[in-house]
Amino acid sequence: MKIYTKTGDKGETSLVSGERVPKNHLRIEAYGTVDELNACMAVMKDSASFKDFNADLEQIQSLLFTIGSHLAATEKNKMSLPCLQTEDISKMEEAMDSMDADLEPLRNFLIPGGDLSSSYAHMARTICRRAERRVIDVINAGENIHPVILPFLNRLSDFLFTLARYYTFKHGAKETPWKPRS
Asked: Is 167 in contact with 114 (CB distance < 8 Å)?
């Protein structure tokens, strides 16, 4: 199978249903941002020397592909899509609780950073927040999306924040609290 099709050379692409839309369509923006998040998470995962949550991260990355397929499908879609479940959100919450057990309580806003993997986790968190905003744009345009997508992305940004703190802790780095000017 060739990677290039030449069908997008005029600024359009196809949704899962076959509908042609501009490449800046709200759905394309949403699943494109989810794809960007997935790629950033790969860099984050690969940069960390601590690998205990890699299985969780790989599952989340797979679910991001699932979310992308749902965002690329309108009501005209006739294809069967992979399953999304609220249990996927619960698993992230359990992982966060596990990480939190080793972390100092959060008392301040934190300046992103600490070590390279932590910085990538913060970058992934901000991309996740943007993906969440793009999904809200799709909803506000009157389009239906799977009900798990928005809460999943919301919880994922919390997971990535917690993971950033955890990487900092496990890699022996230091968190930098935000100290606003008086």
From this structure: yes
